[in-house]
Amino acid sequence: MESNTHTLSQIRQLIRSGEFTRTTSGIMPDLVQGNVVILPKQDADRFVEFCDLNPTPCPILGVSEPGEYSIPSLGNALDIRHDIPQYNCFEHGELVAKPTNIEAFWQDDSVAIVLGCSFSFEDALQRQGFRIKNIDLNTNISMYETSIATNQTEHFKGNMVVTMRPFKQHEIEDVIEITRGFDKAHGAPVHIGDPAQIGINNLDDPDYGSAVELAEDDIPVFWGCGVTTQSILRSAKLPRVITHAPGKMLITDHNYETLVGRL
């Protein structure tokens, strides 16, 4: 399905009906997308504290009221129980379900935390003529666990997860400059070049998403990733955690400039 042949309303309806379950990378490219974490209120308050200390991998775009499954600042009539192509449901750190809606899992104290996503700067790169390899291949983005430590709190600690997009050497300076302006979408890269320096042993075997083949002159470029939240929350072994499935995001109603102006 080509995103430029569908309106946001049509895309959202396809997601709500369960017909659209693939990655949202490249879908509605002018609109901000978000990672989603859903926790009971007490855990949500503590996790917001962790996110505030780690704005590169975990930039907060919005937080719902307890029991409310919409965040008006992110879109009209959003239903976070249904508006993500696929969810991950965890109990005590174990993945127990991967549903296409979470109505059966939603509770009165559920709080949704929406965090920025690097998919939101891909359109800006493409408008400047840069190719995004996973979009060209119609696959999910490559995501890797790293040795980069996050700023820990009393309740949460662990290492950063990153996304990787390959670029040519002569492109990298402009890529850095463009993405630096998207601080609510992870901003500038956290690492460029040798993946072993950040604890990644094999680019062909991502921890999440899909691998892409690098050409001989490609250089891997790494950005902070909201899937960091899933890694951190799994290790915390909380009784009840719901997240988006990696690469399958919440699509908001707004472009980046409009949304950031509302924060």
TrEMBL record:
InterPro entries referenced in this protein's UniProt entry, alphabetically: D-Glu_cyclase (IPR009906), Putative_hydro-lyase (IPR038021), UPF0317 (IPR016938)
Lyase among keywords: yes
Keywords assigned by UniProt, alphabetized: Lyase
GO molecular function: lyase activity
Membership in a protein family: Belongs to the D-glutamate cyclase family.
Protein name in the entry: Uncharacterized protein YcsI (UPF0317 family)
Organism of provenance: Cocleimonas flava
